[in-house]
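Q: I have two molecules that I believe assemble together. Could you output structure tokens for the complex as a whole instead of separate predictions?
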Amino acid sequence: MVSIKHVALRKTKKYSFQDFIKEIKRYKTIYIMLIPVALYYLIFHYGPMYGLVISFKDFSPRLGVMGSEWVGLKHFQSFFSSYYAWRVIRNTFLISVLDIALGFPAPILLALLLNEIHKKVFKRTIQTITYLPHFISMVVICGILKDFLGRDGAINDILNFLGFARDNYLQNPDLFRGIYVGSGIWQGVGYGSIIYLAAISGIDQALYEAATIDGAGRFKKIFHVTIPGILPTIIILFILRVGNTMTVGFEKIMLLYSPVTYETADVISTFVYRMGLEQMKFSYSAAIGLFNSVINFILLLAANKISKRFSETSLW
Amino acid sequence: MIRKKRFIDYAFDSFNYVFLTVLAITCLYPLVFVLFASVSEPTQLIQQQGVLLRPLGFTLEGYKLAFKNPNILIGYGNTLLYVIVGTSASVFFTALAGYVFSRKRLKYTKFFMYGIVFTMFFNGGLIPFFLLMKNIGLYDKRLLMILNGMIWTWNLIIMKTSFGQIPDSLEESARVDGANDWTILFKIILPLSKPVVAVMVLFYSVGRWNEWFMSMILLKDRAKFPLQLILREILIVNDKNTMLAGANLSAESTDMYRQLLQYSTIIIATLPILFIYPFIQKHFVKGVMIGSIKG
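A: Yes, here they are, computed for all two components at once.
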């Protein structure tokens, strides 16, 4: 009995393997096409994930990732007991929350306003102009910001004319978050509105007609037809944004902050950069980076779950 | 009742038009300012207060300095190389991936897609990435600028979705005629997907044109620096050596021309985008919309 079962088992196994070979042969080209893609993801995306083990080791370039010694949670402990932990976590959260509170709704509002414009030429002109800043490089944007916000910059000139004292606004820690969020809205509001305008254009016109017959005015239509119509899009983008809470605009902060503004501007990712690449504390900063990624991932899962429960819209 | 409603409508419309106009001016003006400033006489520019409504005088001195500056020229050349080669590679491999995953022939398609989408939400972070690049020998190599960020997962999803909408019957009839996967992809699928390919070319090339951070941490040799990195030295770091390389200026005119050079280089670096922008804008809109299908 046992032997028969064994033989039968082996037979199916052998059969499926042959099947697999056959399939690869049959669809050879597809598998060849897959190779570069798979390699790219393995090396450039999964490779660094493997490298995260150095968070639990004392990495030395001489010994390599494998050879370095395990040290458990040492680096996490030293981060959380440092003065900087609280500062960078607080800054990351504050900047992100501020950006979600003000920066997230801005494109929705713009889309709603644009949708109320019926002069096509005007609408198109506004769209063309407001999309533009999105395509200008971050280095140039920050260069312009530095110029405008500097002591002799245009904004100072205007405020000085209105009776305010001159100041270098980028050197003022109290203003950093506001400048960050404000310039983010300036740069992204137009481009961000495209997706909502697309969603609005997908709303069934019959709903508007029915609402008109029911006596709904303009504002009622916005609140009872347009906004519910784009709500799934809003929710999806919101989940994605929440899943990036801990990854605030790293590039912009890198270009704009300075030791004077670290108090409010230094976030987890910039701290990781300085510790890791300027001070060469590889394991320490990899550990902080891992902490950051895990929090992000948890926030994403949580936002998705909450949304699934209350609105039946979710990422998966 | 009706009169009142009309009044609200007028009020709302007027507010809307004024608000949007102000917004558009805010978005455009900084660039206009830079453009005006880049051709203004530096002596007048320094005394200038507030906003510029037209250039103050006229000089191309800033542009002359910029085009004599070896740093800017080398950076420009490198960026062109990275954009052209990099974008071609990106579009090619994204198309391959989109084809493979949209054609349901591959077993475990779901498994691979989960593995790929997961990387959008979780990554190893900066330090492991940096060490890996050093280990596999891409540190300070031009090849790095091509391979890094070769496929954007978001673009892959757009491409896969778009390819998936092409009916299978087309593919089947080609197969009956003896076409293999390469022929199907390049002779049937891609020609039918021109709008999406255009979107991909634009997304990738703008992304590569504007890239600076990875080159900052992974390139050491200045001869390989892309333009944005040179710009960073000129605009953010205020590095005099980078700025005034190739120029013979007296001490007092140095300070005057620095500002002018900054404005000119902003324009030079942004010019290609400003130039093609009117032609590409509708494609970008399309791209975002295709992306939104997936949600």
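A: One point stands out. The longest strand of chain A covers residues 57-58.
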